[in-house]
Amino acid sequence: MEQVSGENYPDYIRQHVFAPAMMADSDPNNIPHATAMLVTPYTKLTQGGRSPDWHEAEHDLGSPAGGAISTAEDLSRFAEALRSGKLLTDRTFAAMIKPSPRAPAAYKYGYAMEINDVYGRAIVGHSGGFPGVNTELYILLDSPYTVVVLANLDPPAADYAGSKIVALMAEKTKSGQ
């Protein structure tokens, strides 16, 4: 990306993703820092395997593979910016949410989007995580709903809550609500 745009990765993300999506409380997290808004990540993973006890996880720096800092509100703004065309054209977004022929046959994945069917509703989004941090973003297509779950625990903590919320929202949209 840096060769194509001529901008370093963190600056590019700030200017071309976070600013247009109005994600004021998000950062590519390329410089270690602490603010009152950051949570402490907790993990049970150790170098020797899983521990029965929670302990503070190592703080991660962001990169194009992940590790950005955000809030539920900002991730909701990101989803809206994708839906509304603020970040991508409608054609590009449509390509993102269409299953890619490069994905394994048993796994529905578009370009940067996981694709699921829940009670007959198309749901796209993305998950992420590492020790002590877990995120789920679900966009219920053909509805106004987006579900964001952030957890400061090991994966799949966010999916435990998120999958149930998405199921309820999918059922709600089926009934026209």
- For this entry, what is the oligomeric state of its chains? single chain
For the biggest sheet, the summary is: 4 strands, antiparallel
Kindly report the spatial arrangement of strands forming the biggest sheet: 3-4-5-6
Q: Whole-number average pLDDT?
A: 90
Distance separating the two termini? 41 Å
Question: What is shown here, in short?
Answer:
Helices cover 29% and strands 24% of the residues. With 177 residues, it is α+β, with helices and mostly antiparallel strands. A hairpin with a 2-residue loop joins strand 1 and strand 2.
Task: Provide a descriptive summary of the structure in words.
By secondary structure, this protein is of the alpha+beta class. The chain contains 5 helices and 6 strands. It has a single domain, classed as DD-peptidase/beta-lactamase superfamily (Beta-lactamase), CATH 3.40.710. It has helices spanning 2-5, 9-18, 72-84, 90-96, 157-174, and strands spanning 42-46, 49-56, 114-118, 121-130, 133-140, 146-151. The model has no long low-confidence stretch (mean pLDDT 90).
